[in-house]
Amino acid sequence: MRKIVVMTALAASMFVAACNTVSGAGRDVSSAGQAVTGAAEDAKN
Predict the structure, then answer these.
(1) What's the CA gap between 25 and 31, in Å, rounded?
(2) Which of 3, 7, 18, 34 has the smallest set of CB atoms within 10 Å of its CB?
(3) What pLDDT shows up at residue 25?
């Protein structure tokens, strides 16, 4: 029983870490997209 609890806690912590990683990657992609948009607007003007 104790092994199941430990494995469940480990899996949950890995899931939370993965969510944080995906969230960070999403922010990075978003900021890169904003930079490209800004450069395109500057080139257009």
Answers:
(1) 10
(2) 3
(3) 75
Question: What is the C-alpha to C-alpha distance for residues 15 and 25, in angstroms, rounded to an integer?
Answer: 15
Residue 21: closest CA among 9, 29, 31: 29
pTM confidence score: 0.52
Question: What separation, in Å, do the N-terminal and C-terminal C-alpha atoms of the chain show?
Answer: 67
Single-letter amino acid code for the residue at 20 = N
Query: In terms of Cα–Cα distance, which of 3, 6, 44, 41 is closest to 14?
Result: 6
At 42, the pLDDT band (50, 70, 90 cuts) reads confident
C-beta contacts of 13-18 below 8 A and 24+ residues apart? none
The count of C-alpha atoms lying within 13 angstroms of the C-alpha of 23, restricted to the half-sphere facing its C-beta, is: 6
